Amino acid sequence: MKRNPEVTETLRGALARLITLTSSGELHWERQLNSSHRYGRWKNHLLIIGPDLDSDAQNTPRYLFMTPFDSPDCIEINSNDAELGHLVLALVDAVNSVTVKEPATDPFAVTESFLNRLFD
Q: Strands (DSSP E) along the chain, which ranges?
């Protein structure tokens, strides 16, 4: 199914912005514990990119999944996309370069600050 050209341009702009924000360090990505994914938060959205694989696995599709925290809506763009796939791969490269030495984190860990926000 052919995507609306206006939607494609909007997504192209969003991907370019994510690449720029990632490369400049304004968008922080984390390595998820026991996962091959990276995640970040941007404009009240959860961003998940993956999978993180060795450079030998270049034929494996990568994807960017975006969903707002307050809605079940979501967007997924994958590297096999004829119009946007190259930008997904560029974002994967940018994310990998800024997270390669980051320690893995558990985004689902129950912390005292989380409990305080939840039950105060």
A: 29-32, 38-42, 45-50, 63-68, 75-78, 104-105
Q: What is the mean pLDDT of each run of 10 residues along the chain (120 residues)?
A: 83 95 94 85 92 66 92 92 93 89 79 76
Strand 29-32 with 104-105, pairing: parallel
- 56, two tokens: 């030998």
Query: Which residue reads 């039950």 in tokens?
Result: 119
The pTM score is: 0.80
The position carrying tokens 């560029």 is 90
The answer to whether 84 and 8 have CB atoms below 8 angstroms apart is: yes
Torsion sign (Cα): 33, 39, 42, 45: negative
